[in-house]
Amino acid sequence: MQKILLDLLGISERRSILWRSPCKVCQGFLLWRTLLGVDAVTRYFDGLVQYGEGYDHRIHFSGSVETGDISITIGAVTMEDNGTYACSVRLRDDPPREQNPKSVLQLLLVAPSKPECKILGTAQYGETINLTCVSHEGSPTPTYTWKSFNVQNEPRVLPHTQGQQITLKNISADTSGFYICTSTNVVGTEFCNMTVSVVPPSMNIALYAGIIGGVVAAIVVIGIIAYCCCCRESKEEDYEMTLLAGFDNISTPEQHSREQEDRNEPSVRRMPPRQESTGEDVENA
């Protein structure tokens, strides 16, 4: 088995891959397939070429099969193309025998993608949190290392510096700072960083105070609206009563005529009753 490392500079740059097989053939039948695959990658028989599912327009023979070069080139490679490929050859004049396919191990080299960093847990005093770092692409599988700096941007020692996840226990204000994860393989390196800010549990009081303040403000607003509505209804009732009183002061034509007649009648002055003199008054006079 030949082990061939195939360099791919980033998964987005779909480079072609070339196998150089030691197999030689003049005329006959040859087959390329993956050891884990059911279908063939490609077949060749006396000038007729067939392609397996998913390989059409992606694979072709690099040289001249008639002259013995049965190397193939696969384009637009993906991580799914990783694996071991076997080449089987049967010449026209070969006697019946058990086939002994030549195999080639294809190892696609892909630089790590930018890792995704997360904080799992609540960053409060006394809690335990996990910092995770994952590159979703990369071949071979990337390794992960961690570094940390305090809030003054000074490096500090971590209890664990390897792996996709590190655990920080019984965290405090000293845990706050910057954490950098580096994802590395033989092709390249990528990193991500995150900021951890540890707060005391009492910080939740501010949240509750904000909620209570919002509720109180809503109650005050509702009270003001209700008061304005009541004042408006009171003013409307006063206006209606004033309007009704005005209607009561308006006299009908008959009432107006009688009032006019009463004003035209001469006023009769009443004299005090005259007292008659008695005989005693005359005698006294």
Automatic annotation (TrEMBL):
Q: Ranges of Basic and acidic residues compositional bias?
A: 255-268
UniProt topology in membrane: Single-pass type I membrane protein
Does this entry carry the keyword Membrane? yes
* InterPro entries referenced in this protein's UniProt entry, alphabetically: A33, Ig-like_dom, Ig-like_dom_sf, Ig-like_fold, Ig_sub, Ig_sub2, Ig_V-set
Ig-like domain: residues covered: 115-197
Q: A single GO CC term, please?
A: plasma membrane
Q: What Gene3D superfamilies is this protein classified in?
A: Immunoglobulins
Keywords, in A-Z order: Disulfide bond, Immunoglobulin domain, Membrane, Signal, Transmembrane, Transmembrane helix
Give the domain of life.
Eukaryota
Q: Which residues cross the membrane?
A: 205-227
Keyword RNA-binding recorded: no
Region Disordered: list its residue ranges: 250-285
Q: Where in the cell is it found?
A: Membrane
Q: Which PANTHER family match?
A: CELL SURFACE A33 ANTIGEN (PTHR44969)
**Name of the protein:** Glycoprotein A33
